[in-house]
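Now for one record.
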Amino acid sequence: MSKAVIALAAVFVVVGAVGLGVWRDRHARELPPGIARGNGRLEATEIDVGAKYGGRITEVLVYEGDDVVPGQPLLRIDTSEEQAQLQNIEAELKRARESLDYAGQMLRVARHDLELARNIFRRSSRLVEQAAVSAEKLDRDRTELSNAVARLDAAQSRIGEAEAGIDAVAAEKRRIESVMKESVLLAPKEARVLYKLSEPGEVLPRGGKALTLIDLNDVYMILYLGEAEAGQAAIGGEARIVLDALPDLPLPARLVFVSPKAQFTPKQVETSSERQKLMFRLKAQVDPEFLRAHRGLVKPGMPGVAYVKLSPEASWPPLHR
């Protein structure tokens, strides 16, 4: 191929690219009043599923791309050590309850002894007035009454200690049971597995990420508008998203965020002229009911254009790419 042919082909490419840019700019200018547009890609909220306590993984129950429902088991962590601890705790709890039973018996004996000592002291008090018993006998009965009161106080203290011991052991049991319960990682909501970050046999640290899910009911597009257009955009305003791959299926959406500060748009924005301007970031969230009805079609990462109503009275143009 000659250099002249190559040069001519390059000219056609440049002219074609310029023509495409001019068409897009003219198409944007031809939007009806009260309608703005911005380029972007669909995104979805990501959910990191991690281990609360850590441990060795025994099973990973899902694969990348699987759809999961709330409460579905995703991964299991070994709990053999906690099971052994739980057996020891059960034995301690049994001993603590036996101690409480014995303390209860001692308390009943102490109460009986105290009642007996009070009766003896009352009788001695009456008889000493009649000179039927000596003052020394009354003193001995008074001392025995004081001792009976002290024994009752001690028995009541042992009851409190035994109950506190049971509470401590029961709390440790609940802690271990909680660890065992948390050893099965569950899906927090309806989602799809995006990344499987761990495999059976690996040891997850405390708080370590095991899986990343995406919430397919929380899909949105980030777009950028100039000051004049962003200033008219309202939270809750209507939007429509037209994807390159689905030009005949506009996605109903609403604005859920309008940035209060301008910024230079990032590199992934499609149009170079937009990247050179200070723009305002907006977030258009796709209607969840629409997503449920088109779960297999709408996927994060798909590029497209978001159209935004700047005025409730504005009319949608024919939406297509």
